[in-house]
Structure formats: C-alpha cells, structure tokens
Amino acid sequence: MEQNNDQSADPGQPAVSRAIAANVRAARTARGWSLEALAARGGLSKGALVGVEQGRGNPGVLTLARIADALGLPLTGLVDGAPAPLVEVLPAAGGTRLWRGEHGGHGDLLIGSDPPVSAELWRWTLAPGDAHVSAPHGAGVRELLTVLAGVLTLDVAGTRVDVPADACARFAADRPHTYRNDGTSAVRFVGVVLLPGRPDPATSPTRPTG
C-alpha cells in the first residue's frame, strides 16, 4: 500500500507543475500502477516520481519523456491542463518552456496530437555556446526539423552534421542526439517529434523490469 508520498501538488506551485502532477497521477492510477511500478517502467527513482506528482521542482525534458513513454502518452499529455478542443489555436506566446540553456537559449513544447497518431511540435532557440543533449527516446521515435536562422550543429550517435538556415533534417531520435550552436549568432529552429503507435500500457502485459 502506498503511504503519504502520493499527495496532491502544492497549489502555490506554477500551473505547469500542477498540471504535470495531476496528469501523471491520473494516468498512473487509471492503469492501477503503484509509484514503484511507474518508476521502474520509466527508469526513474521513486523519489523523482514522487517529486513530479507533488509538483516539486522543475523536472527536465528527459524525466518527462521517460514518464510519457512509460505511460504511452505524448509529452503534451502530461503538460496540458485540459482536453484539447476540436480546433485549437495556439497564441504567439503560447507553449510550455521545458528547457533553458546555460547561455540563454530555450526549448518550448508548442502543441501535440493525441494517440493513435502522436506528434509534438517544438520551437527552439540556441544562444551561441548552448547545447541540448538528449538521451535516446523510445524505440522508433523520429524527429524532423527546419532551421529558421543560424547554423544548427546536429550530432546523432556520433554523426555530426551542420544544418544551415532554410534547410531541413530528419533523424532517428531513439539514439543519443545533441542540438548545438557553435556559431556566434542565435540559432532558431522548429522540430517535430514523431512517436510510433504503441499498445495502451493500461491494457498491455506488464513489461519485465529486471
């Protein structure tokens, strides 16, 4: 039986943290999973998951991606505060900032689609010297991007390419990958993360954790 670790998010926390906490807890309990079960499936510590469900701190993109993958949800399924309407228009200042670079860059999750066709639309700005290092996403995840300004250095599993303004790239994101700005001006690009259809974890057999 779970003890007091499974608490509601602090109402004083930012709205995004409260939404993430509520969505993760709701998705986990809907599947009948304990904190330990979700932590094992996501490759996380129970303490980290408790912090997310209580709305504490600012979980990174990798932590949220692992939770979303374990639950079979897109990242937007964790950060959205309400179900999407039939038609949704995102204002210019919309989106959720999930990454901040050491030199002033940022990554915003703008909008996403729900299963069975799951995709996430991201907007990135990398200041000179910024780098976003990502561990492999789930099996079969692919990314598409187009560079709006500057030259993006993209490293996928040790293969490095420079993507200039107005060029596009696609790559297998189930391998380690890095976005980097080695130039002297800001790099701006838009990316789409494509998630393959997965069985609903709520009805799928439990995966081995050993």
TrEMBL record:
Q: InterPro entries from the xrefs?
A: Cro/C1-type_HTH, Cupin_2, Lambda_DNA-bd_dom_sf, RmlC-like_jellyroll, RmlC_Cupin_sf, TransReg_Diox_bact_type
Q: Which residues cross the membrane?
A: none
Q: Report the domain of life of the source organism.
A: Bacteria
Keywords noted in UniProt: DNA-binding
- What are the annotated GO cellular component locations? cytosol
Q: Does the keyword Cell inner membrane belong to this entry?
A: no
Location of the HTH cro/C1-type domain: 24-78
Molecular function terms from GO: DNA binding; DNA-binding transcription factor activity
PANTHER family in UniProt: HTH-TYPE TRANSCRIPTIONAL REGULATOR, METHYLPHOSPHONATE SYNTHASE
This chain belongs to which protein, by name? Answer: Transcriptional regulator
Species per Swiss-Prot/TrEMBL record: Embleya hyalina
Which taxonomic lineage does the organism of this UniProt entry have?
A: Bacteria, Bacillati, Actinomycetota, Actinomycetes, Kitasatosporales
